[in-house]
Amino acid sequence: MDEILEILEKDCRITPEExxxxxxxxxxxxxxxxxxxERDGAILKxxxxxxxxxxxxxxxxxRALIEVSIVPQKDVGFDKLAERIYSFPExxxxxxxxxxxxxxxxxxxxxxxxVSSFVAEKLSxxxxxxxxxxxxxxxxxxxxxxILKQKEENKRIAISY
Amino acid sequence: xxxxxxxxxxxxxSGIRAFFDLVLGMKEVISLGVGEPDFVTxxxxxxxxxxxxxxxxxxxxxxxxxxxxxxxxxxxxxSKYGLEYSPDDEMLITVGVSEGIDLxxxxxxxxxxxxxxxxxxxVSYGPVTELAGGVPVYIDTTKDNCKLTPEKLEKAIDKKTxxxxxxxxxxxxxxxxxxxxxxxxxxxxxxxNLLCLSDEVYGDLTYDFQHVPFPTxxxxxxxxxxxxxxxxxxxxxxxxxxxxxxxxxxIAGMTKIHQYTIMCVSITSQMAASEALASGExxxxxxxxxxxxxxxxxxxxxxxxxxxxxxxxGAFYAFPSIKNTGLSSMQFSQLLLKEEKVxxxxxxxxxxxxxxxxxxxxxxxxxxxxxxxxxxRNFLVRRNGKNKKR
Lengths: 161, 390
Known about the structure:
The complex is a heterodimer of chains A (161) and B (390).
Chain A: H1 3-10, H2 16-23, H3 27-40, E1 62-70, H4 79-86, E2 91-96, E3 103-109, H5 112-123, E4 129-136, E5 142-143, E6 146-147
Antiparallel strand pairs in A: 1-3, 1-4, 2-3, 5-6
Helix pairs in contact in A: 2-3
Chain B: H1 6-10, H2 17-24, E1 30-31, H3 43-54, H4 67-81, E2 91-94, H5 96-108, E3 114-119, H6 125-131, E4 135-140, H7 150-156, E5 161-167, H8 179-191, E6 195-199, E7 224-229, E8 242-245, H9 248-261, H10 267-279, H11 281-304, E9 317-318, H12 329-340, E10 342-343, E11 345-346, E12 358-361, H13 366-389
Parallel strand pairs in B: 1-10, 3-4, 3-5, 5-6, 6-7
Antiparallel strand pairs in B: 2-8, 7-8, 9-12, 11-12
Helix pairs in contact in B: 3-10, 4-10, 5-6, 5-9, 11-13
């Protein structure tokens, strides 16, 4: 992977100027490369990773992983039905996987009730959805490579040879 | 009252201890003064240490070090650098490179033997040489871009010269040498029958070219002690594991002192180090890439703000000149600490000839480095304003 992407994936607030210095490249080249990644969709968006446990408010949410077994359709396989499912705004992620079920769907909702009613009233009743199993998330430890903990204090001594 | 020995009494205490205490006593300082990685040891290495404790590995090991670790080192050095040392009698596991250097000097020095030390250098070389009864002979490299030149080396050698401590990449300057430069130096050492104590603990952190271990140069193996350790590349400073490879008779001599003074390195640390060899390379390369980017950033920033800084080839230090501020290294460091809460190490900590330089460690997060560079810029702008008014 291009080092520009590696740097931005770790911290997207780093400016093109800083990247140019870090990689000893010309600023216009770095800017052009980033533009191209954005245009091609390699960079989809820039966002902050938020530890929601530390954000109190009304928008606290519940997450559930739902295993969905579906009947594949002629010519389109799983894709058509997957699209019908992932288009719901409640669905934050959707993956086709191998194993005992077909789609792993991650749902976010305000409460257990909202999530269960989504599953009962929308997901399960779709044609060709055979079965669903819902797992509610109890605690998040690590997400997308980030350990969800408050910042640790510095353990190094402040000055040494 | 019992008096301490003359040698220890005459040992120079570090002149900047007071400055260090000042830094340690201050809160919210951004420190670029740290001589160790900011990464913690990669998890699989820490886990191996924990597992070894769970399994009850709490005993002594062989004086020379765990055989498993020495075997691992043999393979590692062979595949990485083409270096061949026998784990049986050409290798010793030490408490960091520091212990290794101490053992070596005590093993080779007769009273009055001279040891050449290019400066600026790491702080321990001189005092440890004196403790071993040797006489340090310092070669100032600041006028030669902080590199030891063959001419100056040749000039410094006389009949009493026994060896040289060469450290590359160098703490504090980040300087390293290419093969050709090392060959030139090695020819002079060979001609004069010198032992080279080659401290290559930063060897894996060389950015612009392949690191060349000294004993891989033609005919040098029999007259080189190769020192390396896990502290820097694997981010394992606190585990205290280093090693030394070299000629049998010297290693045997060093092992004697080691067995009477240290016995062996902590078994937990040796177990973890063994895991580092087996699975740590990927982490080393990731950290190295990160350091390289920070180096480019910091060196560019320093030069832009008017502190001339040569491009350091390795380690994680930049060594800019602060001469055009008109301040001494110590004044610069104290004022910067007081006014901007950024800690750096005055060059003079590494030898009087490094007056006019400061050491900046870029083993710190990009966020810290960005903020620190901005503060240094503010500091310099303010000082320039003051100077103009006068």
